Fold these 4 entries.
Entry 1:
Amino acid sequence: MFSIDDKDTVLTGIYFKRGSIYDELGKLPKPKEPFFNNWPDQHGKDYDETVPTVFEALEYNISCYLIANDIGDYLNKRDELLVILMKPTGFTLFSNTLGRAFHLRYLDSTFFHHVNPVWSNGKLYIEFMLKLENNFKPTDGKYYLTTGGDYLLTENNEYIMITEKKVFF
């Protein structure tokens, strides 16, 4: 349901904690304070209404999981994630469900731990937090709707039935 720089996150072993990513990506930005005068002989503020509203950068705290087959696989996937995060231009996270991309920049990882038990069903599970910045760099939106009883599966395992095929860019 997600890709990072056109690579499916499942292939990289990265999963997002249920409820975390959509709540964060749905945040509304805070507007930057516009120019104003606070005249001592008038009530309130006198805003410059000729200037458009602009927003501060949004910060996201997204809970993630990294799932690996063994220690070597974990180290490879961790290195692959670091290559994505260290790009000076940032990276693009695309949500198939939302049909939208977000250009993000890595800020920090504020939480990291191995999930207990560390090994479960032959897999290694690591939970971590990514602190990312959305600076509103333009991205493409791609909305795919399909025909004949097809559906989209949401994060909460709810089905949205689709009846017509259209592709929007």
Entry 2:
Amino acid sequence: MKDKTNLIENTNNDILHFMVYKKKYLFVGYYPNTHEQQMSSIGYEIRSLEKLKVIDLENPSNKWNYQFNGKTAMGLIKSFNPKDGDIVYCNHIKPIKDK
């Protein structure tokens, strides 16, 4: 970012994993900061994902939030539709509305 804008800030103790999707969207995966997570040799792309944030890199004010609760892994996401924020992975998942 030219203006050095903070795109994401970890305000809790979660472990974060970043992935850029189609060179346009930053995917930020949240994993609980447990001893098991810290010591695991399994890559974050295939670990059970708790939460996911997606940030549009061209317009960072566009953000989508998801709660997976361990039901999928970041590397298994098949596609992302920025028009409505839908992610396709085994089923259709809608983003959680910001409060």
Entry 3:
Amino acid sequence: MIQHTLRSDFVFAPPPDDPTAWQASTASFRDALTLDFPDAFMEINASALRDVPVVVLDFEIQVEPDVFVAGTAAMPAPDYAHVSLVDVTAHTAALFARWLRDSYVASPSSVRFLSSFVMENGDETP
């Protein structure tokens, strides 16, 4: 088996033509994580990166034995969300994406993503 250790940041979001497709809220995302990852670390904070503070949910979950994902779910507008993962391999991001697709979003086709590695190589297409 080939080990892929290249790490990147990933962002997951609903489609641009339907930003409310996930029908997201901080509470619903927290509840979904709690249901599937009962040992998850979660903390609600206010992000001051914008003019108006945005409620974010910082989390860390174990997606498979000894494989952890740290991320942030931001809810900058009603029913809109994006989730970022920090410093993960593509394999780990895929495990999270599968959970997101199968357990949280309303439709599997409503998840788009972008990675910092791809952006650094000139492709900014989700």
Entry 4:
Amino acid sequence: MLGTDPWNKAASSSFQNLVAKVTPLCGSDPELPTDLTNAVKRRNYLAHSFWYDKAPEMMADGPRGLLIAELADDIDTFYILNDRVAVAVVNPGMEALGASIEASEALYEKLLRDAQQTD
């Protein structure tokens, strides 16, 4: 269909595929798949339509502040979802493979420090 955004369709499909793959592993957090699906929809809206829809509001100080607060809430939501995926899926998977979560976190911190030192 000519009115379909192919980028939005492809992004939705690929992210929804990830959600579908994670869903069977979310037993400890049964709401997680629904929340991830909603996050995919929000991500797609932010990436493809938000600025077109909200352009007039960006021109005035009051509405602009509300938009910034809305985006800050999105940041919080995405960080919280990331943590929930780690608790429900990543950490149990690592433990099942015999990988230490503490060692993984230490490696992450080292890589982060190394990356910051190269700036």
